[in-house]
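Figure S7 source data.
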Amino acid sequence: MSFLDLDEWLFDLAAAVDVVYSPIADVKIYPENVDICLVEGAVANEENLEIAKIVRKNTKTVVSFGDCAVTANVPGMRNMLDSSGTVLERSYLELGDTTPQLPYEPGIVPELLDRVLPLHQAIEVDYFMPGCPPDAPRIKAFIEALLAGHAPELVRETIKFG
Amino acid sequence: MSQTVVIDPVTRIEGHAKISIFLDDVGEVSNARFHVVEYRGFEKFCEGRPMWEMAGITARICGICPVSHLLAAAKTGDKILGVNIPIAAEKLRRLMNLAQITQSHALSFFHLSSPDFLLGWDSDPAKRNVFGLMEADKELARGGIRLRQFGQTIIELLGAKKIHAAWTVPGGVRSPLTEEKIAWIRDRLPESMETIENALALFKKLLLDELKDEIEIFGKFPSLFMGLVADNGDWEHYGGAIRVKDSEGNIVADKLSEDNYQDFIGEAVEPWSYLKFPYYKPLGYEKGMYRVGPLARLNICDRFGTPKADAELAEFRDRAGGMATSSFFYHYARLIEILACLEKIGDLIDDPDLLSSRIRAKAGVNNLEAVGVSEAPRGTLFHHYNVDENGLIEKVNLIIATGNNNLAMNKTVTQIAQNYIHNGDVSEGFFNRVEAGIRNFDPCLSCSTHAIGQMPWW
Ligand code: SF4
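Tokens for the predicted iron/sulfur cluster complex:
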């Protein structure tokens, strides 16, 4: 969402790149030969893991984008508990007052990983961009550097968590 | 042979979901299901945290409507402290919520849904998005982007950050506005007003013609409607009490307090979704299906209390024939709510209280249990905490705006699938229509769950 805070700069961006896959576009299958992918979010379930691997395989430059991807952040708070079962039981058994049961439908409802992983523990990443979320000016500077073909600078001002 | 087709992932929504469509042996749709596939477990891992942190943590549930969680958490905190917050703090919180409803609705309409209306349901899926819209209708796209920016910037002016501002606190807010900031809002208001009036005019034209059929097919059915209304029955987004109406317009329940939400809302679980299924308890599971959010708020309120929005509300009711039971009217209701928010922002910024420095009531922990409620862009949001003497969280329950619509979202996708899919013909354009049934509700699924999302580029 912070990405959309780029506001009218999106027009410039659209002129420079093709958006081939995104939650705000209708492409369902991650394409091949992608140049750059910003991956947000922690790796919390089996499907996240699967798609992270596909992204890695099909992408030249993978950016770990936002605190959730970089550190597992708030989703990672459940790692303090012994297993994913504890959080599920609370929500669906204790707090479900009709038909309490744990969601389970293989192939449809992905199982949680026991531990939430930051992205780089699941796949190799090329760059980190912390922030919760990284604000639009930082995203812009980062993308501009990549577009110009050099490594984005990570200096004190650009490294900001939270 | 019966068959199941799965749309995976549902796109142009916030969060992660799939839809299963079940076809019988002659290829007709017997049923469809909407699956939310992410889960994070806030209700458990917040245990033991100081309740003062809850606003900051729960805001991370969602990148679109973090303000709703900031407000619900702060309102729950107010009650745990047992304080009446200063009037200026309430007005500032209200201003932030109006700004957030504006930005979130603008995102839903312009960035996510309008490509379907303006580029076409069957248009090239590679272009059927906000970037395609930017090419096809530059001025409309720019207007939408700037309208969202207007809302986001007000949030930033108040809370120093566009997303996840740590600004609301139990007892009030951290900082007031300044003259310069108010001047910025005043400056940009007319442009925003013009954008929304144009969008409304355009959408109403489409409703008469190109989008006529969608009104009947995209989730038209009776249900209850629930949300907050002010004490005098006006449209409300922050305070007031809960009202429930049925499809005939009868008030089923009124002046319900959030404190007793467990008496009138039950939560069912189905094995095929991480999103629970809340229902209106007196009618029982499934029969107690209700809808929340813009459509419900327009249905349950007596009036907005601002002239332009009230004129639009009258026309809205005319077109709907009284109560609006079509989920497709969510889009229409959203545009009218933006208009109302802008009018209300215009009224609020003239209020000298916004500059007051008396914005926070301080107290220790005086109550060990409290429920806070707010109207998120997507509907009524409940936070329920139990704390110990030190304010550490012992128990949390959250009923998330989008979750309230779960039964209705399932019914909507089933209705659309049954209308369009025959003889097993499942072409892309049909899928897109089924997904659009979900986009009606502008669901925010991170809110039930949350995790990986990809925003890749070229
Ligand atoms: S904004 Fe924060 S909580 Fe949301 S995905 Fe990004 S890093 Fe995570």
